[in-house]
Amino acid sequence: MNIRLALVLILLACGVLDTPRPHTVSAEEPTNSPASTLQHVKAAGAERSIYRTAVPQTKPGETPTADLETFRSRIEPALKKACYECHGPDTAEADIRIDTLNPDLLHGEDVSWWLEVSSAVGNGEMPPEDAAQLTDEERQQIVEWLSAEIQTASQVRRAQHDHSSFRRMTRYEYNYALQDLLGLELDFAKDLPPDPISPDGFQNSSETLQITGKQYAEYLATNRRALDRATVSGQRPQVLYWGVSAQAASADQFAELETKDSMSDDQRQASQAQAAQPSAARQNRQRRGRRGRDGPRRKPAVYQNTETGQTVPVTWSYAGAVHAWSPVTSRPPVPDASQFIAVLPARQRMVIELGNQLPDKGIMRVRVRASRVAAAQDADTQDAASQDSRDQAAAPQLALEFGWQGDKDQKAAYRISQRNVVIEASAAEPQFYQWDIPLSEIHPRNPVRKREKLGVTDRTNPSEYIRLFNASTDSSADIQFDYVEVSAPVYDQWPPQSHAAIFIDSPNRDDEQAYAREIVSRFMRRAWRREVTETEVQLQLELFNRMRPVCKDFEQAMAETLAAVLSSPRFLYLVPAPGSPDKTQPTRHDFQLATRLAMFLWCSIPDDELLDLAAAGQLNRADVLARQTQRMLADPRHQRFSKHFVRQWLNMAPLEFVTIDRDTYPQFDDALMEAMQHEPVALFEQMLQHDHSVVDFLHADYAVVNERLAEHYGLSGVRGNEFRKVSLKPEDNRGGLLTQAGLLAMNSDGTDSHPLKRGIWLLESILNDPPPPPPPAVPEIDVADPEIMKLTLKQRMEDHRSQPACYSCHMKIDPWGVAFENFDALGNWRTRSQGKAIDASSLLYDEHELNGVDGVKRYLLANRQDQFVRGIVHKLTTYALGRPLTFGDRADVEQIAAELRQNGDGLQTLIQQVVASDLFQNTSHPSPDGQLHPDEGNDED
To answer: Can you give the pTM of this predicted structure?
Structure first.
């Protein structure tokens, strides 16, 4: 039986003790009093931290010994009094005998059991209520003795057993490494298989990152494609230009209106009404297409003559490519502002068809002269206040999409802009807004664009288009524009910077062998993250010489050679630097430290500054390492770390797959989902850059939101898509991670809350204390039983928990999950569900009442700050090292946690302490399975 499950089962089955634990809040302290704010509870909880006293450390050269004298004189008598009756020689419930545990934690085999005893005694889970009780002094003595012995045992066992972070790069690390190495922000790894997730929730774990022969072949092919994108050959390609004005696009339709001037008034009015709106059949199709998911039917996109007020509908059909615009080879002059404009309402799209001449490589530059639609002025109906309100309304946002439609069955359309452009220009002063889109990243393309002629009506249409999409949700956020310019392929310089960074200027250009050696050695140093030997360079040059006769030019042969460099384990794997006579051990250590630091904070390879410091043997100096850490956290590349650590730490993968019920939540849209996904990362970034306390993750009096998320939370005064810090009031019921909509939504079923998911997530991600696995053959709630369905959700969970097979797990999980019942599946605050008042109160195993999410926060801030801090240190260190932590690492984790608590709990402080720790800087030999030791590295791959 699982040790943890067995112990928890015994303790919970026997009952719990309502005795204050050391350093926890007693019954008299007002943690649940409304007069005591969460900020006050947070400050008081920090003052009671056990880490305010120094964590014992083994002195250098000292041989630690087990403190058996204290155990015999003080600890054993207390355990005998309170524990032996149930777990001693006479009873041994569940075959657990504490009296036979070896008190020598340094060398004995019962460390796992002592860890459980420490947790159970420290958290008040034992002894049970009907057993002999421990005094506060006895409880404190047990906890302090176990803490000291566990700390010493951890240090001893780590010194005896080394651990390896030997692993390949994750898919995202590989992608960022190629981006930084080649100078291209492209998605190189999109075709590679996803990485497995380790049991502790991380993708960068050495336990799971192996490679197969098939994967290696995929890496080789990807490396060749990457070099192909980064390098060019031949002359600069001709740029094609498309210049499309609203006047030209609407000319035919407005001409039809002009011809109707000669008709009778009745005929003209009927004709104009028909021209100004789609046909009845099209209206029906639009009505059907614009209801349901996006709510009521919206205004259509139109062309407008601003002088006459006349409008005609924007239409497009794929047949025959009749709407395709022809490009020219010289840039057309930008026309003056016109009286003819296109008006694009919220959630509407407008197609600009470009034919079949878009190239495969280079940049497609799209420029749109646009503005916000001017608000109508009506002095009789609009006062100054309402006009000011309109002026303060959210600026509309424009996104760029790409698509094609060969026939009724072959089509594709998808967003290609990574960001929405916020249209802030006024109608009186429109501005150009621009996207630069790598054509090689647009996929899929029209498969017949190079095989079929344009305009042949009885064949598949080879044309492609861009589509402007008003991504705003506000029904009044219309966008108007009068000119769109598309140019491709655009190169701001020739050859491109990515090419020039590889084929550098050199006096050796006329000597292929010397120039090849210069390029290869320089590239290998960055890719392999260390100095390279002459032998290693020569091996690559031999490959170049074999490839040169079969390649059309020098550049192609070099690209093949560099692809092999990228396919080496020295690039794909994080391996120690090889030993050689002219390199000292400290220098090799510095190169490994540079790689570990860059993978931690940039998810990528070291830059030249880190490599130069490593080569000089300077990076291991404490002051240099601290400055480099600070520099790297100020570099935009650190945002990769924020994104990937937060999403893995909080196990956010389910948020990408949860299906929100659109009938229950018609207000849900893609913009809200994007904001929910980014909010935890935005909070982490805010805390990181300002070194806020990590305890703010439990509760903060501020949130970091954008306009869409603020609207969802009912917060006013937030405009735009950028995330920013806003102050919160207690009645907002927000602050910290626990109340973020995305984290609540991913722990739901998409229609309603899911207390079990929420409770498990809190224990695993926030407290680093996962519940025991469920026993086999667990009975499920019978949703077909009408008597069961009459019960509230809380009552159904209590009924389920009453079954013996379910009690041990659910007693630990359910109280946490029930406390979040005031939040629905989308994270909205509510007081009623299915017509019944919500009861979000629950009792923990120690009979402590959690009164909703406010009670959860109060309890965690008062009683579990140290556990949370230790948990986030554990998670961050696991991520930083790229391997699971073991008992041997516990002492270092405790030391980092203690130093963090003693220095203000700052998030940036934590990162600095992890980097400065022996655990991070230690150049470990792999565990004795023969994988790879630093001294065993060779010069060949």
So the answer is: 0.81
